[in-house]
Amino acid sequence: MTGQTRTARSMLARGLAILNCFRPGESELALSELARRADLPKPTAHRLIAELVDAGMLERGDRGLRLGLSLFTLGTRVPRQRLLSELAHPHLKRMHDLTRQSVFLFLPNGLDPVLAGRVHGGRGADHTVGSPAEIEAAAYAAAKLLRAHRPRVAPSGTGRVERRGPRRATREASPAELARVAEQGFATAQCGPEGGAIAVPVLDASGAPIAVLAAAGVPERTHPVRTAAHLRAVGVGLSRALQSASGLVPVQ
């Protein structure tokens, strides 16, 4: 990005770029990494971060900055996401009961998946949190699925913010891999020995993906084809529920 282009960006756009640096599975980022991803000079990033901390949009952690409680509170007031989460929860729970795996609902933000609902399971009695490996694997599988369906991704209506600057150094799926995902109808991803995920699209009436369902758990205990079949069955019911909810998703 040139100096002239950087100067032309408004302060609001710069602040949003900083908030948009966080990706699924990342709880904290160093100031230098936030500045790099947002393509901002460190002094500018430091000043904006201080203002975001004062507003409660960011918090200081042990190893860097994390998204703040005020941002979460604001997000819970978004009626579309709240209604989607409430509507999707019985379907996520049904998938969890079938597989005993963690189940996630993602919405497309451009080609990036945004986590909108979850039911965690597997080990222990606490189903309110999932391992970072599960979350990251599910998000990566969902991202591959959205990229494989790039021409048909439905608008999310979430007010997409363009990501600027370099992305995190993760392997991008090759064109051949994306073609295979499109052909088989599901995507897989793995993040370490404890994070394996399978994702399938939730389609609208025109066949475009309006959401993504993903199941994640220990890879050696996950059967991709069987899990994808369960996800598709649950996804059909969720698609019908979403399309019957007036104003929730575009129905074509």
How does this model look, in words?
The chain is an alpha+beta fold and 252 residues long. The protein folds into two domains: 72 residues, Winged helix-like DNA-binding domain superfamily/Winged helix DNA-binding domain (Arc Repressor Mutant, subunit A); 166 residues, Beta-Lactamase (2-Layer Sandwich), CATH 3.30.450. Helices cover 45% and strands 17% of the residues. It is built from nine helices and seven strands; from the N terminus they run H-H-H-H-E-E-H-H-E-E-H-H-E-E-E-H. The strands form two sheets. The protein has a five-stranded antiparallel beta sheet with strand order 4-3-7-6-5. A two-stranded antiparallel sheet has the order 1-2. Helix 6 runs antiparallel to helix 9. The chain starts with a helix and ends in an 8-residue tail after the last helix.
- Proportion in helices: 40-55%
Using the CA coordinates, give the radius of gyration. 19 Å
What count of helical segments does DSSP give?
A: 9
Give the helix/strand class: alpha+beta
Major sheet: order of its strands?
4-3-7-6-5
Poorly predicted segments: 1-6, 123-129, 154-170
CATH architecture of the largest domain: 2-Layer Sandwich
The CATH topology of the largest domain: Beta-Lactamase
What is the global morphology? globular
Instruction: Identify the CATH homologous superfamily of the largest domain.
Output: GAF domain
Mean pLDDT: 78
- What summary fits the major beta sheet? 5 strands, antiparallel
